[in-house]
Amino acid sequence: MKTYKIYQIDAFTKERFSGNPAGVVVNADGLTDAQMQQIAKELNNSETAFLFSPDDNDSDGLIRYFTPTSEVPICGHATIAAMYAKAIEYNLDACILRYKTKVGTLPFEIVKKNEDYQIIMTQGKFELSPIFDPATTQQILSALGLHYNDIDERCPVQIASTGHSKVMIGIKSREKLNNLTPDYNSLIGLSKQINCNGYFVFTFDSDDDDVLTYGRMFAPAIGINEDPVTGNANGPLGGYLIQNKIVDFKDNLFEFNGKQGEKINRLGMISVSVGIENGLPSLIKIKGNATVVFKTEIKI
């Protein structure tokens, strides 16, 4: 029997019961895949992160992510949560930790300020797929309850990824965004067809000068009908906006804040930074706050 330490963390917020909740097991050495899946299902967050000791001299550890139904390669909010939990558990000073993920070894920066922490996550390589053909685009819009006249004409419907792909759908109205009622079964079927599980609907319809976008993210194919605040949607969104020349930038850097979770009363904010080379996104980082909701232990 081993005692495992489990944190429940709300990411991208400093207010409990808002932002995006994630489970974190800070000492996961010894857990099997089946046990991790059971823990993730029991905690029933969109993702639970498991931190393991390093298996070589080139990293500070391994991190794996499970939804209640399956393992996923990378997760933004669960990374923020995991690094925050590790910093709290071990009273870390400011540092950069390199963790192995399913999309490669990534640096995660722990920023210490006023006896609290912010986390900066460097995401995986940005990739942008071709624009969907009109028939597939129509299927996606229909499944989301959208029409062509809802779409922001600057925003092509296509898949963007920094390791865990999302379909980007830009629309004109925040009211429309908050009134969406997707057909989840249709989205599940489409996910198999297009080989992408997440649908990120966003809008520039913001009444806050510090917030560029509001969004909602649906991923029913992996057991997440709606994710409150999604790092692996807002990060790739930054690359998508640059590569499609939708936004301006200066000094080879584009930064913005995105909010998500308004409709489901889990509002949180992500800060996104896109480094740019030759007019294309080269390095994407997300920054977020977090807070501990509770800590517990389980013996297995």
TrEMBL record:
Gene3D superfamilies: Diaminopimelate Epimerase, Chain A, domain 1. SUPFAM superfamilies: Diaminopimelate epimerase-like (SSF54506). InterPro entries: Phenazine_PhzF-like. The active site is at E47. Keywords: Isomerase. Coiled coil: none annotated. Pfam families: PhzC-PhzF. One of its GO terms (cellular component) is cytoplasm. The keyword Manganese does not apply. GO terms for molecular function: isomerase activity. Belongs to the PhzF family. NCBIfam families: PhzF_family, PRK10281.1. This is Phenazine biosynthesis protein PhzF.
